[in-house]
Structures are given as C-alpha cells and as structure tokens.
Design brief:
This protein has 13 helices and 17 strands. The protein is α/β, with parallel strands linked by helices and 381 residues long.
C-alpha cells in the first residue's frame, strides 16, 4: 500500500500521520545513542510492513543472532518467528556474511531480498559494520553496493542504524548526506519522568508536519502525534443534573453526589496548578456554567490571560452549549486594550477605582434583563 507512487507507508502507529512515508527504494538513517530505541524502531518498520501491507522484510544484524532477536522483539509485541514461517521475514547474521568477502556478502543479501521479494531492509548497525572494514574506502564501496543493487535496482526501502556518541546529533558524515532521510532518536527526563524523542533531520520529498515528536516503546512502538484542537464542534444537547435545593449543580453528577452542588450566592475558589492549561481545568469549571446557561442562566466572565472568545466558544460547544445560546448568555468583561473581534458580548471597562462600581452597574442591568443573578467567572491568579 502506498500514499503515492514514490512513497511507502511505514505502518508504524502515529508516524504516517506526520510524514508521507519513506521514499520507495530510499535509504533512511536512524541514529541515536545506545538505548534510544533504534532497533525497535527499525524492526517495527519491517514488522508492520509485513503485517499491515504484506510486504516482506529482511533484517541484517551484527548485534544479535536470530533466536535472541525473536525473543527480544516478542517483548514489544512483534512475533517475527511467525512472519518467518509465512516467508514474510528473514534474519541474516551480518558477521558471518563479512567473513568470506565483501562481494559475496552483498550477493547473499541481494539473493535473500530477491528470493523473498522483500520491500524493506534493515542493517543493524552501520557503525559496527564500519569498524570491520580495513579502510573507509572499503566501507564506502559496501555502502555504494547497497545503494545501487538493493535500494535503486530492487526498490527495497532500507533503514541503516547508526550509533551516535551524544544524545544531541551534532556531527554529520558521508552517509547522512547521501541518505534520503535522517531520523534521530534521543531520551531524557522531565521532573523524573522518562521520555523518548524523535527528530526528523531530513526527509526528502516529504513535508514534515512536526519536526520533533515523542514516542513510546511500551507495548510496542508508537509515535505520539500532536494534539489537534477541534474547531467549532456541533454542540450536542447534554442532560445535566437538576439543581439541588437552594443551590446549583456543578454540572458533574459524581461531584454533585460528593458535595451536593454549589450553594446559592456562594463564592467557589479553584486553586489551579500553574502548569495546567485552560483545556485541563475547563473539565471542572465549564460544566457548571454550561449547566446554568442551558437552564436559561447567563455568565459574566473576566477571562484568564490568553483565553479568547473563540477558545471559550469551542469549550462550551463541547459541553452542549450551542453557538447561538453562547452568544446570548455569555459576556466577557475586558479592559479597553483587550484585542479581540468586536462582539456585542464583550464589555470593556477601565481598570481604575471606578471599575468595581461599573461592574456592579453592569450586573444590576443584567439582573433586571434576565430576572436572575449571573454566574460569574473570574480570571485565575
């Protein structure tokens, strides 16, 4: 299966959402320090190619023998033994190949690719292989043979695994420049939490939708795609709990059971961790006001910094408030310098000594208009 004639889907969960795939018959370098997940990444390229698209693959290894490879990969949910039985996979120990001669080693790889009609090849690793050659000239001859016989003639998309000395890729050599794509893997910690990062150094012919992203190998390799914030969802009418006696529902049934809703004329303080975004804490605050608006109530709000009218509209539509209802019942109180589209629901007032008096006047006007007090939402500090 191909996205276009010149590209082959990798099949790796999440990766094909960021790139078109790998160039058909292209050479891809996967680099990183030991333990960054290079072998699992390259193996996943072969495994998912066989499982999802029926494309056979060959894994040439200087690192592990066949049995250890099978055992290691089963830990990541990939059964290569079963693929080998179906003639969709072949493991070749590289050290044995290099013993007779360079030419015969190339021939064995080519024979196995032709016999299997393989579309995917992994060589693990170029760095270890490079040390076995007598000179750089011999190493480059081997590489050119791979490129001309395997990559170009057989149109077998090839991953060459390359070891790096540093987590950050700061040096580039001959093989990086001639490759069609270079992907760098690294790991690190944030607040004692371990993470794995993937960087696209280059990918010929493919627009990279995110230069850097994260991935996991837990339960199999998966690339994390950036979160897409939905725009203008069609609101769905939700059935919120009834208001408790002398109070208002939180909009969350389980929370109502715990605290009995919010008492009438009460002030509720939310202490919010500064690391949380509006999208995080809206799950607790928005249902309350959404339930109030859907019961013909209204809201006067002083928004947090960076929260715009459109962001609020998206949030409330998610919780069942239509755009029409939101425009009729939600009002923003903002400073004159507030840069936003001119909506009649945005009320601008000066932040001086008279601002509190002005706010109370606005509130009194709306009480007369709606016949009930507003719910009020103030910015977090």
């Amino acid at each position: 299966m191909e996205v276009e004639e010149k590209f082959r889907l990798t099949g790796i969960p999440g990766l094909d959402e960021l790139i078109k795939g790998f160039p058909r018959g292209g050479l891809i370098i996967v680099s990183g320090t030991p333990g960054t997940g290079k072998t699992v990444f390259a193996s996943s390229f072969i495994y998912y190619g066989a499982v999802k698209y029926g494309e056979p693959g060959v894994f040439v290894s200087l690192i592990e023998d066949e049995k250890r490879f099978y055992t290691y990969m089963k830990g990541f949910g990939m059964d290569f033994e079963k693929l080998a039985e179906k003639r969709l996979f072949k493991h070749i120990p590289l050290l044995i190949l290099l013993e007779p001669s360079l030419a015969s080693s190339i021939d064995v790889i080519v024979e196995n690719i032709v016999e299997l009609n393989a579309k995917r090849l992994v060589i693990d690793s170029y760095t270890a292989m490079n040390r076995l050659f007598r000179s750089q000239k011999e190493a480059r001859t081997f590489l050119h043979s791979i490129l001309s016989k395997i990559v170009s003639q057989l149109e077998c998309t090839t991953i060459l695994i390359k070891e790096e000395k540093m987590l950050e890729k700061k040096e580039f050599d001959y093989v990086d420049f001639i490759a069609d794509g270079v992907i760098h893997l690294k790991y690190g910690t944030i607040e004692d939490k371990f993470y794995r990062e993937l960087s696209f150094i280059k990918m010929r012919g493919s627009e990279v939708r995110s230069q850097k992203t994260y991935f996991t190998v837990h339960g199999g390799l998966k690339v994390m795609t950036p979160t897409k914030i939905p725009r203008k969802q069609v609101s769905v009418r939700l059935h919120y709990p009834e208001n408790p006696p002398r109070g208002y529902t939180t909009g969350i049934p389980d929370l109502d059971l715990e605290i009995g809703g919010y008492p009438d004329k009460s002030v509720v303080l939310f202490e919010i961790d500064p690391k949380l975004t509006f999208k995080d804490y809206m799950m607790l605050t928005v249902p309350t006001i959404a339930a109030y608006i859907l019961k013909n109530g209204y809201c006067l709000a002083v928004p947090s910094g960076g929260v715009t009218w459109d962001v609020l509209l998206d949030a409330y539509m998610t919780y069942g408030v239509s755009e029409e209802l939101f425009r009729r019942h939600y009002y923003l109180i903002a400073e004159p310098s507030y840069k936003e589209k001119e909506y009649e629901n945005i009320i601008k007032i000066e932040t001086d000594e008279s601002s509190v008096k002005r706010f109370l006047e606005i509130e009194d006007t709306f009480v007369k208009k709606y016949g009930k007090p507003p719910s009020q939402q103030f910015r977090n500090r």
